[in-house]
Design goal:
about 120 residues, two-stranded antiparallel sheet, 5 helices, 4 strands
Length: about 120
């Protein structure tokens, strides 16, 4: 009889422990705003062209880019993404169908003089 009571108490204790771990594992996070997501992306993106890529994406694609930035910011807050290089952000945007133009210059140095492509 006392064995049955011990078994029932153990089962009840395990059920309570499972319920508590479920409550602890799923803390409710508030949704990120667009500005917060963009700031997080600006902070975690490294490289010379990161700011230009972010600004051009926002100018061209607006809310679609913000939605993508929100998802990337959530992944950063969860610990999946630590930091992004500027070319990685460009590739993510490109794979999502957002072609972001980046100003590109080609320079040729000949005999100590610099020529831009397209100049005489």
């Amino acid at each position: 009889m006392s064995d049955d009571i011990d078994i029932l108490l153990r089962k009840k204790a395990l059920e309570l422990a499972k319920m508590k771990t479920k409550e602890v594992e799923a803390p409710k996070q508030r949704a990120l705003t667009g500005e917060e997501a963009v700031e997080i992306i600006k902070r975690i993106t490294k490289g010379d062209r990161a700011g230009e890529i972010i600004e051009n994406a926002l100018a061209l694609y607006g809310q679609h880019a913000v939605a993508l930035f929100k998802k990337l910011a959530e992944l950063h807050l969860q610990g999946v993404i630590n930091e992004l290089a500027d070319y990685e952000l460009y590739q993510v945007l490109l794979r999502a169908g957002m072609k972001v133009p980046v100003k590109t210059e080609i320079k040729i140095v000949r005999h100590g003089r610099e020529y831009k492509l397209g100049e005489s």
